[in-house]
C-alpha cells in the first residue's frame, strides 16, 4: 500500500517546498532524502525529490525516484515528462522511448507525450520513426501555429534544420510575425548556410529591439561565418555589454528571485573574489569595490563546507543579495588595442613552422616567444583586468571566456589576421571559427581528453614561468593519433573514457607549459591538459588562449 505525506506536517513536504521556492535546493533535497528514508514508498516525496535532483543536474539520482512514481502511476504524464528529461540528460533515449510507447498506447491522444517521443527518437537518430510519429499526430495540428513551431524546434534540435524550416515557414503563414518563429527560422537558415536570407530577418528584428542580446549574438555568428571577424566581435561585444552589465543595487533582489540567475560554482566565486581584489590592488576605477570584496568574502565563508566543489549549485538568496550585482557581470573592462609594430614575434620563421607542421605526420608544431613582449603584456593586462570570465560551470575547476560572450579585442583580431598572413598555406584558407581563454583554479584539474571541431587548433599560454612549480608539466598532452573521422561532436568531445587511451600511451607529444609558448596542431588530434601545479595568487593562475581555424573535415 502506498503512503502519502501530509504537506502541512512540520518538517515535511511543505517545508521542503518552501525551501525550494526560496532557492535553498540543497537543504530541500536533504530534507526530502530524510523523509524518503522514513517513508521509502511515499510517491509525493519521491516525485519532488526526483524533480529537485533533476533541477540540480543529477539525473542519475533523479531517475530512480521518478521511475518509481511512473511505475505506480503510469497515467501521470507530468512525472513521465520529468523522467524523460532525466533519461535525455543521461543519454538513455532507449529508456525514454520504452516509457513513452506504452504510455501512448493507453493515451493515444496525448499530443505532448507524442512530441516527447519524437524528441527521443530524433535524439537517438531514428529520423524515419520520428517522421512516423509526427504523421500520427492529429491532422488538426497542421493548422496550429504553436504545434508547427514545436515540431520545427524538435526537428531543429534533432539535427534536421532543413525539415525544421518547413514547419517554421508554415507557422509563420498561420501567424505572421511571430518573433520566436522568425528567430528560429533565421537560425535554421544560418545553419544551412543560407546567410543572405537569414541576415535580413535578424536586422529587421533588431530594429524593433536593438537591446536583444541573443539576436546580436546570432548576427555576430553570421558575420563570423562570412569571415567578417571585426563585425562579429563588435556585435558579440554589444551583446555581452547588454547581457552582462552590472546590476543596479535596486535590481538585485528582483533578479535573485530567479534561481537561474543564482546558479554558480565555488571555483567561479573564488575567481571573481580574487579578481576584484586584484583590481583594487591596481587602483582600477570600480565603484563600491571594497563593499563587493567584503561581500564575496562573507559569501565564501558562509558556503565553506556546505556548497559542493566542482559542481553547479544555486546560491542562496541572502548570499546573492551581497554579490549579485557583480556575479558573472562586466564589472570592469580594459581593452587591448592593436599594435603599430604588430603582434607576432618577427624573429619567428613562420615558413619553417609551416613546413614542420606538415612534415610532422599528423600535424603538430610548437614555438617559443610567440608574441612580441608588448603584445603579451597587453593581452595579460586585458585578461587580468577585464571581468569576462563568465563561463563558470566547468566541473574540473576552470572558468572560460568565449568569443560569443564578448571575449575579444583589437589585439586578438590583429593576431588572427597576422597568423593567416604569416601561415598562408596552413591558416590562409581557414577563417577563425572560435576563440576562448581558460583560467584555472590551482587546486583543481584541467580539461579531459577531447578533440575540437576545427581544422587547426592554436593554443598559447600567458602566465609567467615563475608561477609554474613544475617546468616539466603544466602544458598540453597531444596524441599523435586522430579521433576517428566518423565520430560526431558528442563522441570526440564528451567521452573521455574512450579518448583517454589516446593521451596515455606512447604515441603522444608532451608540451610543457612555458609563458608565450605556442602549440599548433591538427584539431582532430586528441589532447588534454597536463597535470599542473601553479603557485597561489590571481596572477599566478594558469591561463591559455585557444584559437580554432576552419572546420573539421569528416571522413
Rg, rounded, reads 26 Å
CATH level-1 class of the largest domain:
Mainly Beta
What's the structural domain tally? 3
Give the termini distance in whole angstroms.
Answer: 57 Å
Biggest beta-sheet profile: 6 strands, antiparallel
Decide which structural class fits the backbone. alpha+beta
Strand order of the largest sheet: 3-9-6-11-5-4
What number is the mean pLDDT? 90
Q: In percent, how helical is the residue content?
A: 40-55%
CATH architecture of the largest domain: Sandwich
| Count of beta strands | 11
CATH fold category name of the largest domain: Jelly Rolls
Poorly predicted regions are 1-8
CATH superfamily of the largest domain: q2cbj1_9rhob like domain
Strand content: 5-15%
* Bulk shape: globular
Q: Helix tally?
A: 23
Question: Can you offer a commentary on this structure?
Answer:
This protein has 555 residues and is α+β, with helices and mostly antiparallel strands. It has three domains: 13-184, Serine Threonine Protein Phosphatase 5, Tetratricopeptide repeat (Alpha Horseshoe); 249-323; 350-549, Jelly Rolls (Sandwich), CATH 2.60.120. 50% of the residues lie in helices and 10% in strands. It contains 23 helices and eleven strands. It has helices at residues 13-21, 25-38, 43-55, 59-72, 77-89, 93-106, 111-124, 127-135, 145-157, 161-174, 179-191, 195-208, 213-225, 229-243, 249-256, 266-281, 289-303, 317-323, 350-359, 373-385, 410-422, 489-493, 496-504; strands at residues 263-264, 313-314, 364-367, 398-402, 432-440, 456-461, 476-482, 508-511, 518-522, 525-529, 543-549. The chain has a six-stranded antiparallel beta sheet with strand order 3-9-6-11-5-4. Strands 8-7-10 form a three-stranded antiparallel beta sheet, with helices on one face. Strands 1-2 form a two-stranded antiparallel sheet. Helix 5 packs parallel to helix 7 (111-124). It is globular.
Amino acid at each position: 500500500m502506498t503512503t502519502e505525506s501530509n504537506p502541512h506536517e512540520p518538517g515535511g513536504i511543505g517545508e521542503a517546498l518552501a525551501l525550494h521556492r526560496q532557492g535553498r535546493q540543497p537543504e530541500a533535497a536533504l530534507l526530502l532524502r530524510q523523509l524518503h528514508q522514513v517513508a521509502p514508498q511515499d510517491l509525493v516525496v519521491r516525485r519532488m525529490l526526483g524533480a529537485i535532483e533533476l533541477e540540480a543536474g543529477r539525473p542519475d539520482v533523479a531517475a530512480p525516484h521518478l521511475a518509481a512514481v511512473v511505475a505506480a502511476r503510469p497515467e501521470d504524464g507530468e512525472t513521465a515528462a520529468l523522467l524523460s528529461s532525466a533519461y535525455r540528460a543521461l543519454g538513455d533515449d532507449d529508456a525514454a522511448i520504452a516509457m513513452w510507447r506504452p504510455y501512448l498506447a493507453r493515451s493515444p491522444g496525448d499530443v505532448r507525450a507524442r512530441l516527447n517521443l519524437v524528441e527521443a527518437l530524433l535524439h537517438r537518430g531514428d529520423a524515419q520513426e520520428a517522421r512516423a510519429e509526427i504523421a500520427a499526430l492529429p491532422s488538426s495540428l497542421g493548422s496550429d501555429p504553436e504545434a508547427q513551431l514545436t515540431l520545427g524546434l524538435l526537428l531543429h534540435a534533432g539535427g534536421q534544420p532543413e525539415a525544421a524550416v518547413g514547419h517554421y515557414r508554415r507557422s509563420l503563414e498561420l501567424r505572421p510575425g511571430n518573433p520566436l518563429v522568425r528567430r528560429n527560422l533565421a537560425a535554421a537558415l544560418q545553419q544551412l548556410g543560407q546567410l543572405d536570407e537569414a541576415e535580413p530577418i535578424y536586422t529587421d528584428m533588431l530594429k524593433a529591439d536593438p537591446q536583444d542580446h541573443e539576436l546580436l549574438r546570432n548576427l555576430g555568428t553570421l558575420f563570423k561565418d562570412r569571415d567578417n571577424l571585426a563585425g562579429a566581435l563588435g556585435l558579440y561585444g554589444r551583446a555581452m555589454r547588454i547581457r552582462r552589465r552590472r546590476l543596479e543595487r535596486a535590481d538585485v533582489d528582483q533578479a535573485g528571485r530567479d534561481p537561474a540567475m543564482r546558479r554558480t560554482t565555488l571555483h567561479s566565486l573564488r575567481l571573481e573574489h580574487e579578481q576584484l581584489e586584484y583590481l583594487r590592488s591596481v587602483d582600477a576605477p570600480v565603484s563600491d569595490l571594497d563593499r563587493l570584496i567584503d561581500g564575496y568574502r562573507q559569501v565564501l565563508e558562509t558556503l565553506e563546507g556546505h556548497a559542493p566543489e566542482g559542481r553547479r549549485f544555486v546560491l542562496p538568496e541572502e548570499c546573492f543579495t551581497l554579490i549579485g550585482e557583480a556575479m558573472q557581470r562586466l564589472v570592469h573592462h580594459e581593452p587591448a588595442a592593436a599594435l603599430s609594430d604588430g603582434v607576432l614575434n618577427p624573429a619567428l620563421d613562420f615558413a619553417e613552422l609551416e613546413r614542420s607542421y606538415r612534415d610532422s605526420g599528423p600535424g603538430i608544431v610548437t614555438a617559443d616567444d610567440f608574441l612580441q613582449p608588448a603584445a603579451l603584456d597587453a593581452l595579460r593586462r586585458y585578461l587580468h583586468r577585464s571581468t569576462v570570465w563568465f563561463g563558470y560551470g566547468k566541473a574540473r575547476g576552470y572558468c572560460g571566456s568565449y568569443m560569443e560572450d564578448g571575449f575579444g579585442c583589437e589585439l586578438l583580431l590583429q593576431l588572427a589576421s597576422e597568423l593567416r598572413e604569416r601561415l598562408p598555406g596552413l591558416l590562409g584558407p581557414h577563417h577563425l571559427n572560435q576563440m576562448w581563454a581558460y583560467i584555472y583554479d590551482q587546486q583543481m584539474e584541467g580539461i579531459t581528453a577531447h578533440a575540437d571541431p576545427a581544422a587547426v587548433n592554436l593554443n598559447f599560454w600567458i602566465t609567467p614561468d615563475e608561477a609554474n612549480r613544475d617546468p616539466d608539466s603544466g602544458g598540453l598532452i597531444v596524441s599523435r593519433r586522430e579521433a576517428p573521422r566518423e565520430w560526431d561532436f558528442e563522441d570526440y568531445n564528451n567521452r573521455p573514457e574512450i579518448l583517454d587511451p589516446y593521451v596515455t600511451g606512447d604515441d603522444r607529444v608532451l608540451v610543457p607549459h612555458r609563458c608565450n609558448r605556442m602549440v599548433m596542431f591538427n584539431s582532430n588530434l586528441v589532447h588534454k591538459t597536463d597535470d599542473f601545479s601553479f603557485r597561489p595568487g590571481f596572477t599566478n593562475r594558469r591561463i591559455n588562449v585557444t584559437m580554432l581555424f576552419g572546420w573539421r573535415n569528416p571522413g
